[in-house]
Design brief:
Length: 316
């Protein structure tokens, strides 16, 4: 029999409020998601984890749209508890904790203290001071260099175990294929996915919001953890498209320089990185444009991705 909850009434109310916000996102990620059932499961696992790990001073953290993430203390040390939802189609979420453990020896990722619930619930050491790389407001080339170095650290590890899901058979790849149906780059995507292999464990969402300052270094959080070609680790270049100037006259020269900067720091071949960037940028742009209600921010993002893909036509 479980003992009484360690959550105070205020902590329970705050976590329920955070959970309600997250529930609004889930149907957009997983069609047919049973929201009430998923909410109840996350709430139950969160309270069980808080009790088992003897957490105190629990405070939900903002941002994100998938997992319930809370700061807390355990025996006086600052920690993070992260409860991923268990939903059909979201099985890849359980790879996050294993990926962080696989990369632990690199010193470039958040430290995993414990896992529960078939690895869907994580206890992490809290990163301090924890400010985001994105908030450092670095020039684009410097941001790409920092993220490229982090990518290189992750990909320098031994071959990852085949138990991780492959990019080629992931929901992400299926969405790219759907978005590119009938597009001239459809065949290029198929070739890249077929030839990419499973040489590296990819973070899959490596950008300045997922790199936090830990003293005088950066630590990575929130991997998607898919096996694939290391040259497919190009989210930093997709994010860089937001920095494209209003004029598109010199796009090819500008984005070509970005790719070379990132590829050099990441230990990648620039042309292969450019080819992956071009095809994924087009897929992401077309996928964004297909939404029934596209916000001005989404429209600007899609426009930048189209320009990135076009600008890389010669380099790729």
């Amino acid at each position: 029999m479980p003992g009484p909850s360690v959550l105070t009434a205020a902590e329970r109310a705050a976590s329920d409020l955070a959970l309600g916000r997250l529930a609004g996102y889930w149907p957009g990620y997983w069609i047919g998601c049973d929201v009430p059932r998923t909410m109840a499961d996350v709430r139950s696992r969160f309270e069980s984890a808080a009790q088992a790990w003897k957490l105190r001073k629990i405070e939900p953290l903002g941002g994100g749209g998938v997992a319930l993430v809370c700061a807390a203390t355990q025996a006086g040390r600052p920690v993070i508890v992260k409860v991923n939802p268990r939903v059909p189609g979201g099985e890849g979420l359980r790879a996050e904790g294993r990926a962080l453990r696989f990369w632990q020896s690199t010193g470039a990722v958040a430290h995993v203290l414990d896992l529960r619930d078939d690895e869907y619930t994580l206890l992490l050491a809290r990163i301090r001071p924890g400010d985001r790389l994105e908030d450092a407001r670095l020039p684009v080339e410097q941001m790409l260099t920092e993220l490229g170095r982090l990518a290189a650290a992750l990909h320098a590890t031994p071959p990852p175990p085949e138990s991780f899901p492959p990019l080629a058979r992931s929901n992400t790849a299926r969405h790219w294929r759907w978005a590119l149906a009938g597009d001239p780059l459809e065949g290029e995507l198929d070739r890249r996915l077929s030839d990419g292999g499973t040489e590296a464990l990819l973070h899959g969402d490596l950008h300045g919001r997922n790199a936090l300052r830990d003293g005088d270094t950066w630590k990575i959080i929130d991997p998607h953890a898919l096996l694939g070609d290391r040259h497919a680790e190009i989210q930093p270049l997709l994010e860089a498209s937001l920095a494209l100037p209003a004029s598109s006259r010199d796009d090819a020269e500008l984005v070509g320089g970005w790719v070379r900067t990132y590829a050099h720091a990441a230990g990648m071949q620039a042309r292969r990185a450019a080819a992956w960037t071009r095809v994924i940028a087009r897929a992401r742009a077309l996928g964004s444009a297909s939404r029934a209600h596209q916000s001005p921010e989404d429209a600007a993002w899609a426009s930048g991705l189209h320009r990135l893909a076009e600008g890389l036509g010669t380099l790729a």
